[in-house]
Write a structure and sequence with these properties.
The chain is α+β, with helices and mostly antiparallel strands and 217 residues long. It folds into two domains: 25-64, TATA box binding Protein, subunit D, domain 2; 68-216, Nucleoside Triphosphate Pyrophosphohydrolase. The protein has four helices and ten strands. The protein has helices at 89-95, 115-127, 184-193, 199-211; strands at 25-37, 41-51, 54-64, 68-75, 80-87, 99-102, 104-107, 132-140, 151-157, 178-183. The strands form two sheets. Strands 4, 5, 6, 7, 8, 9 and 10 form a seven-stranded mixed sheet that branches. Strands 1-2-3 form a three-stranded antiparallel sheet, with no helix packed on it. Strand 1 and strand 2 (41-51) form a beta hairpin. The model is unreliable at 1-11 (pLDDT under 50).
């Protein structure tokens, strides 16, 4: 069976009302009520969607906890990179093992000059390393159907001499973090086998493999 699709001949950004010139879909949004306001905010919204003659009304939960920054530091001489492993309760609930390998990341603080500064700060706090030359890979929505967060991912450089005094992560009171140094060839195999499943780390890893394939030999 063939799959029908419509080819888009050009790229167009959405108009100020949020609608795109490349689709006949239109919509309007109304805030319904706040459900929870703590570390994160959870609100209910009503939306009217229309495409041609079809019209539907929907209610959606929207989770807001701010925006984040992630970083994958790498040492091009030794062909290594730094990641963290920590307990993620949603992963435990989903599959029973919450010890999760991921890129260092955190929310962008008001005091951070920009997402790159947040990524550098998180590397110091979670990895215990001073990183250099942050290079933006991408900013994307990890869960666009429910969460407002935009995640900005960066690559950055480090060497063994960049380890901060104290020798380990400066974890928050409610965190326990292990820092792991991986060779790129091993990390790529972990991705291929499904052992690396953190979206942030995968985005950074893919970007580096495209830009610097020689690091994976």
């Amino acid at each position: 069976m063939g799959v029908a699709f419509r080819r888009l001949e050009r790229y167009s950004t959405p108009t100020p009302d949020g609608n795109s010139a490349l689709t006949d879909q239109t919509y309007s949004v109304r805030h319904k009520r706040s459900v929870y306001d703590g570390f994160m905010k959870l609100d209910l919204y009503e939306a009217s969607l229309q495409q041609g003659d079809r019209k539907i009304e929907v209610v959606r939960e929207v989770h807001d906890h701010g925006h984040g920054a992630a970083v994958l530091p790498y040492d091009e001489t030794r062909k290594t990179c730094l990641l963290v492993r920590q307990v993620r309760l949603p992963v435990h609930v989903a599959e029973g093992n919450g010890l999760f390998l991921e890129a260092a990341a955190g929310l962008i603080d008001p005091d951070d000059a920009d997402p790159a500064a947040a990524a550098v700060r998180e590397a110091g706090e979670e990895l215990g390393y001073r990183v250099h030359d942050p290079e933006k890979v991408s900013t994307f929505y990890p869960i666009p159907g429910m969460v407002t967060e935009q995640m900005s991912c960066f690559l950055a450089r480090y060497t063994p001499a960049d380890k901060l005094d104290g020798g380990g992560p400066d974890a928050d009171e409610d965190e326990m973090i292990d820092v792991e140094e991986w060779g790129f060839a091993d990390l790529w195999r972990a991705f291929q086998s499904g052992d690396l499943r953190d979206g942030k780390a995968i985005v950074c890893l893919m970007a580096l493999r495209i830009a610097r394939p020689e690091l994976f030999d």
